[in-house]
Amino acid sequence: MLAYFYVPYEYEFTPEKYGPPASGIKKVFVRLFLKSSIAGPKPYKKNSTTAPDLRVADERDFEKEKSQLIDYIRKTQALGADHFVAKETQSIGKLTADEWNTMYAKHLDHHLKQFGF
After folding, report:
1. Contact in structure between 95 and 103 (CB atoms under 8 Å)
2. Is 87 helix (H, G, I), strand (E, B) or coil?
3. Is 48 helix (H, G, I), strand (E, B) or coil?
4. How far apart are the first and last CA of the chain?
5. pLDDT digits over 58-73, tens only?
6. Which of 52, 57, 82, 102 is most buried, by CB atoms within 10 Å?
7. Quick check: pTM over 0.90?
């Protein structure tokens, strides 16, 4: 599960792992219909569908995944808000620094609550 937690960070820090960013109609669709639920203030709905490219199904090492998640969070903090101003995402276009922060925080919060934390 921890490997899944850091997929949004991987999109930012190792985008080549996921191929080219969305373009054309897919990007327009995601931006128009999903941006507010992904990067807006409302919490994710319980049992929301996971995008296929975000799914992690193979076996992982807990300590390694925990370390990677912590490293990504620290890297994000070290870069600071200015790094994320009008920065392009893989799927929904440019976001403000606050939207980036909201997206990362919502994703972690959603799954921590899912597991009772």
Report:
1. yes
2. strand
3. coil
4. 14
5. 888 989 999 999 999 9
6. 102
7. no
